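Human: If only I could read backbone structure tokens as easily as an amino acid sequence. Underneath my words sits a plain record pairing an amino acid chain with its backbone structure tokens. Take your time, and here it is.
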Amino acid sequence: MQVAIKKLSEKAILPSYGSTFAAGADLYACLDGEITVNPHETALIPTGIAIELPVGFAGLIYARSGLATKKGLAPANKVGVIDCDYRGEVKVALHNHSDIPQTVSAGERVAQLVITPYVTAQFVEQEELSQTVRGAGGFGSTGSK
């Protein structure tokens, strides 16, 4: 699949896959220098790119496992969603879950982008829903005791 990308800055780095079968493409910080993310705070990190996703697809922004485990930095909203009609700059809201300030450098990989199809549902109100064995059980109700 080809996806149109527009560089909004000369310093922007196009998303890239780390391996042949990687599901997520790395997103890079487009900065003039460094940004410090203080403990338990969030910083908006620009990527310097805009994306044109095909209709029926969304871009999901996930944490990079290395950044999350080594620096405690992960997207503040857990998973960011880029709708196919959005044409603004892709930015990553990185939250510092650690107790020490963390630095994000220009060109650093800050998140990963997974492009996935989605379904637009028509929600139909009903008086009753079909019965299942599970029923209304949730939040661990199917686990062992």
Notes: The chain has a mean pLDDT of 95. Helices lie at 65-71. The chain is about 5% helix and 40% strand. The first strand starts at residue 4 and ends at 7.
